[in-house]
Amino acid sequence: MKPAKPAAEMTMKKVAIVIDDFGNNMEGTKEMMDLPIPFTVAVMPFLPSSKQDAQLAHDKGHEVILHLPMEPVRGKKSWLGPGAITTDLSDEEVHKRIVAAIEDIPYVIGINNHMGSKVTADERIMKILVDICKERNLMLLDSRTTPKSVIGKLAGPQGVPFSENQLFFDDLYTYSHISKQMTRLKKLIHERDTVIAIGHVGPPGKKTAQVIKEAIPSIQKEATFVSISQTMKRSTN
């Protein structure tokens, strides 16, 4: 039998789970909200249940972030939903849309990107986003939909707290794929002190919630579940 890890070493390891795509009465919303761990709720703006989902998350003690729709390299703009940030917008329009989205969701403490492989690599637009986060004391989670993202590069020097996603649970919607990704997460816990993973409500929502629920006891033997604010870096140095 292996000796148990000292408590101090165990509590240093952190796992932060972020669940995206709340705001549109998506499938799996109840199952996610019923999970008995802290996690972070990312709510899309201007949708039928945006305010309601943020309120419910807050009432359950979860951190709320804005899940801001941003243009991808591939894909249709129509997939993004209302108020999306696209590369053809002027600086003023980008600023206006980001502020309106922040103000649409109650209890927001930060922002992450919905899609956004094109926009998060665009320094002009990301500078506007970082400046708004600095003004409003918001943190930034880079969902890492592209390795070309400049969020960390711009947020660090401005002192805006930021962190980066390391794993998507449900980029494929099958139970077997989501389970494999959970196995990857458990391996990552051995390799680093903090692991951040993103799942979704919507088509995979119930399956993702089930996989997370089943994994809670084994993860808690090695790490502590935390909210996204406890993973933030303040500088790239």
From TrEMBL:
<dbReference type="Pfam" id="PF04748">
    <property type="entry name" value="Polysacc_deac_2"/>
</dbReference>
<protein>
    <submittedName>
        <fullName>Divergent polysaccharide deacetylase family protein</fullName>
    </submittedName>
</protein>
<dbReference type="InterPro" id="IPR006837">
    <property type="entry name" value="Divergent_DAC"/>
</dbReference>
<dbReference type="InterPro" id="IPR011330">
    <property type="entry name" value="Glyco_hydro/deAcase_b/a-brl"/>
</dbReference>
